[in-house]
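User: Some background: our group keeps a shared notebook of sequences we're curious about, and every so often someone picks one and asks for a predicted structure to add to the entry. Today it's my turn. The entry only has the sequence so far, pasted here. Could you supply the structure so I can complete it?
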Amino acid sequence: MSDAAKSGRPPNKAVKTKSIRSTKSIDKSVASASSGHTALYRGSDDSEDEPTVPLPRSHTPGHLASKSINDRRRKPSDLSIRQRSQSTSQIASNPGPRSYVATLPPISNDAETPAENEDKEKKRPAASRTNSSIGGRTAVSTSATARPAVKITKPPKGQHVPFPPLPDAKDAPNVELAPASGMYWSKAFVSGSPHSNLRAHTTTLIGSNIYIFGGCDARTCFNSVYVFDADAFYWSVPYMVGDIPFPLRAMTCTAVGKKLVVFGGGDGPAYYNDVYVLDTVNFRWTKPRIHGDRIPSKRRAHTACLYKNGIYVFGGGDGVRALNEIWRLDVSDVTKMSWKLISGPEKAGSSGKETRPKARGYHTANMVGSKLIIFGGSDGGECFDDVWVYDIETHIWKSVDIPITYRRLSHTSTIVGSYLFVIGGHDGSDYCNDVLLLNLVTMTWDKRKVYGQPPSARGYHGTVLYDSRLMVIGGFDGGEVFGDVSILELAVHAYYSQISHFTIEV
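Assistant: Of course. Here's the predicted structure to add to the notebook entry:
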């Protein structure tokens, strides 16, 4: 995922944490913010004796090629869950002023030679390396691997935001009047608990609440959970207990009833393939038992969609390569799950014609009936504009022939009636803030006029449909990480909402 390079990194500071046996836990605060999808599936080495000098960073969308204060979180000195529940101390160091570089070089991964790649592979921690392909790997159940306790990482505490006053008409933006049938952008005036600016987080709707998990700001990665009330525009931060995940970004979070199922993600050079479940009733994290000996490789920047008690995971990157297989996680019982490989990574036959999408990450996936729709993404060298449909019932991939196409990665796509609403992302040259509509009946793209004041161009944000509104939360524009909430009012006739029953003839 794309990020801006910082001019320097803050000094390392030792942070003492409260412990029953006077144990000291030290986290080194290291600047972390650059992205570059040339390194999309490649970790960076981590040296203990590294001097505090600015990290060299590339800025091509697709990956946060950086270090994090959480890179050493697996140390035995990490606080146990019991100790963590008795101490609320957290990192609150001020990194000082930051400057960003917002220019983007061309998307390419040709800058590194094979020898350099091999050298990086040797330097990278074993936890982030994969030396076998998905198809023939023999996986070990994650439930058999013990891990140290994880503490919740949050940004420094800020001020509670009271209900915002009505804006002064003198300060209102000068925008064009919108017809009743036109879509309209506005900024949500929010209140409640302070929250961090975030990118590469997850936004998942259950009822009228939007659950925001993980992601990172310009410095570090988080494993905290925020709840945004989509009716009251109110932020809250629930208290979490249980088997809490590591700080993550570019993972997936899928609603299964009133539970959230999180898979994959990573931080810095670390990639994971763990599964966690959050019960949104009592806010308890659990790590379910995974049955069977086949599991997906560690990955991030993948997608996940729910269909008939199964979560279908497609693509992403595992630290070595981009991926294009489909795995199904059985969630009929969230206390004991199992993985199954549904569509392997094999390519086309003798004709040379592609029979499945190229390997990719930072794409989007949406489920319509039994059809899984894949759009865009990147393999670290190319920004894609193709649309693919996978029929889960027949296990057949089909490419959609669209005369006019748009390249996108790190965008969001949301099903609204018979349209796929694509918002923002990166087009291979720059970040966007436009709204694209893919007509799922005619399989053609449509650009509609949108009134009001749109959010600034960005990618790595989250979008949720609620009450005939699309809500866009957070994101990153190559220089700044956002924490705002923008609302796209869809209006009555803006997207032919009367088309609610349709089939995809692909």
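Suggested note for the entry: The helical segments are 81-86, 114-123. The first strand starts at residue 5 and ends at 6.
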